[in-house]
Design brief:
Chains A, B, C: Homotrimer. 3 copies of one chain form a homotrimer. With 347 residues, chain A is of the alpha/beta class. Helices cover 13% and strands 29% of the residues of chain A.
Chain lengths: 347, 347, 347
């Protein structure tokens, strides 16, 4: 993005104070934007938080760099030392690139239902549709083309980007951010088999409740409960294209990467870190503080904190063909080895 | 969801009759809502259909419970005995929580093309766009912000939730339900390689045809055929975020869980049960009555009914690292075992 | 789709010339549509480009067939011989089924921001929202309900189907096609862990830049960069429901099938062919001309051209249960075989 240098910039003294960093360099030096370490110029602030980009430090033209103290000697210019450079960077971006202030306004093309309650400085963009009886607290921002079913409630400062759909009765806390195309509160997937093999839909009469400070990625789906509520606790971060089945319960501060699917009635603990493209079966429990690496398949409860994995990494097609064919005989191989061991007797 | 007790409720005599159950208890006792067995109160009806929740029965305050006859003795209160408690429950939810009656109306912000034919009691919500020559039969309901290309046809009582997009010429049967963000009739993915390595798009001039009583989940995509039709037969149930490639043919009453991808020109039989996050290659056939468990990878035709599986479940990260590294030498291991067997000679 | 025969059709002489094929048959014979080889009638053109459908040739009623020269003798009627029948077919479809001409128009319900620049013959459909300062070049077509953030730029002839969302500052080249529900420029997924286990959002201040002739499938997501740009080079073809993480760089003419997820800061080469349901980790490189087969898991850089694979195909559930259980002891099995080898000594 063309960096906007029209702001007045910030002095390194200000940045050190507001990011809780120790300054080594010129306190009055001003930077106007953040940039990656291999691209930053003299008017820009950069950061290095682990070894991956340290090789760029020596040749960097950055006006200042946020660094961990252990790497202080790798850069000759202005340094902001911080034990957690990534968190300090997160704060610096906000200071140097504040979001434009939201203008409170209701676009004339928006359709507002009966009995809707709007807080202060609410913004509703073009072609949004707000169902009857919705309550939007202060500074809620509804993007263009969003659709809220009847009786939704959104907490202070929550933002829906373009084209988000909320089913009726959805409740979302404060300061949440839902990206475009997210669908909250579509029917859970519940059918009873009829004797003739066809399916009888189970009406899904529950709802979705989302806590404060939750982020929901683009085109992610969170289904309404069959009965009761699908629960997303505060601080949960969901990436794009994720499926959360009906009656799931996701614990606070759990983070889930893109393309992961969690089937119905799974109960995921707090502070879990779930990689991308993971598949988690329904009706199971994952304990607090569990990490699941990308592409894993979880079919049983994981009751102890720790890191869990599955999946086999790609190899050359020719060797893969041989190995994968062998997999289908793996049990037989075990039996053959056991037989060999028996024939050889005790060691 | 806050249960709405404002309806008049139903007597157990009525519920027994309308769900085909045998009542053990007070025929004049009235319940007003359904609830989960661990949450139901005296004015609510619950159900237990398998062993998973039986432990809650003894302590339940439910006003009545639907049970299989074999579990009749596990609950002391009013019981509705049914050989298929889940199906009986499905019916009870409809009786106690009927959907609000749809009000026929065309919202003034909807844009209706030329030559559109509308049946009786059609509802078209705000900001929907109906292309030229579409035909919507009686009681069709088009949600807010939906977009129908030219010449789509929708059968009686079919409902599109908010933000569904139908490509031109899509045909959908009666009583279907398409959830928000579903995209039906986007181009199939077809390109011919040019000699220089770039791609020449194949115009996709086919369509999508969907039978009666089909459900399509949120953000699910069904592509139009290159030539001819992508076919979804009656009674198929598709969950969220599913991909159905061009020219697929899905047989009647097949059910597919979320995040499954079916590549182009696959032919799936009737009454199949396909789990979530399954990947099915194109140009193959799956027989009727096949079950594929979640996360499986299907690259060859499955010609016999039965249950098919693949995928390896998650384990502790440390042991996974060792096992997965070994997988890449699995063929070599077979060869080593064969060599050992040869050295030891005949048993 | 009901084929529209109202066009005047084309003579085989014209088709031979415009597809660069050698005609064997009647140059004045006219065909009016294309159709699959097992369905084509005397007024239709079909094609067979590999062995898969050759068996239909002998009995086909097609008015003419595009064939590779090696298969010329398998069909008795009019033939158009071409070394690349699929590419010739692609051209023939365009000739016989040209897309309807786009009518330039701005629908009165569209909302156009301040300072928007529109080229010649731009079309903007109902309920679309164009942010401030957007620039749309000649013949751009914005479908119904699309939303463009501020300062987006779209090149000549680019088409957005219904309900596409572009984040602010997105730049898209010429002749691109984005299908319904695609979300370009949602925030990348970046959070810094706070000491208490909660997450601090990293403001994503970069953008997405897409080259010429790119196709983006329905409900596919391409996230904006944290800093700088997520780059999709010219000629890239992305299928439906794909996730492209922030700061990815996808090389020219790479093609990716549905449901694949590419995590942040991955750099994919040119002319790669990536199957469906592939999961690619972030911060790695894939060389030019790499093929990755469907359902593979890529966690390390692939630095050499070639074909890479992983994934284990489905088998009967009973044998799968045995084999997958054994996998968790694979490392142990290797150790046991090594022990046996040691006991037997040198050969």
């Amino acid at each position: 993005m063309a960096q906007d240098h029209s702001n007045g910039g910030l002095s390194l003294a200000e940045l050190a104070r507001d990011t809780g960093s120790e300054l080594r360099g010129d306190p009055s030096y001003r930077v106007f934007a953040v940039a990656a370490i291999d691209q930053a110029g003299p008017r820009e602030l950069s950061f290095v938080h682990d070894g991956r980009y340290r090789s760029f430090l020596a040749g960097s033209d950055a006006g200042a760099v946020i660094l961990p103290p252990a790497m202080a000697d790798l850069f000759g210019g202005n340094r902001l030392l911080n034990e957690d450079p990534y968190l300090a960077y997160a704060r610096a971006v906000e200071l140097l690139h504040p979001p434009p202030p939201a203008r409170a306004s209701i676009h004339p093309s928006a359709v507002i239902g009966d009995g809707v309650e709007l807080g202060e400085r609410v913004r509703i963009d073009a072609h949004a549709v707000i169902g009857n009886g919705c309550r939007l607290q202060d500074r809620v921002w509804i993007g263009p083309g969003c659709s809220l079913g009847d009786r939704c409630r959104l907490g202070e400062g929550t933002v829906l980007e373009a084209g988000v759909a909320l089913g009726e009765g959805t409740r979302i806390g404060a300061r949440c951010l839902l990206h475009s195309g997210a669908v909250i509160g579509a029917d859970g997937f519940g059918f009873a088999a009829r004797p003739d093999g066809s399916w009888h839909k189970i009406r899904q009469i529950g709802d979705v409740r989302i806590g404060d400070d939750v982020e929901v990625g683009a085109n992610t789906c969170i289904d309404r409960a069959a009965l009761g509520s699908t629960l997303i606790e505060q601080g949960v971060k969901l990436d794009n294209l994720i499926q959360i089945g009906h009656n799931c319960h996701i614990g606070a501060d759990t983070i889930v990467a893109a393309h992961t699917a969690i089937a119905g009635t799974a109960r995921i603990g707090r502070r879990c870190r779930i990689g991308g493209a993971v598949a988690i079966a329904g009706h199971l429990e994952v304990a607090d503080d569990v990490t699941i690496t990308g592409n894993s398949m979880v079919t049983h409860s994981l009751r102890q904190p720790g890191t869990y994995s599955s999946g086999i990494t790609a190899e050359g097609n020719r060797s893969w063909r041989r190995n994968t064919a062998r997999f289908h005989h793996l049990d037989e191989l075990f039996r053959r080895v056991i037989r060999l061991e028996r024939r050889l007797g005790k060691e």
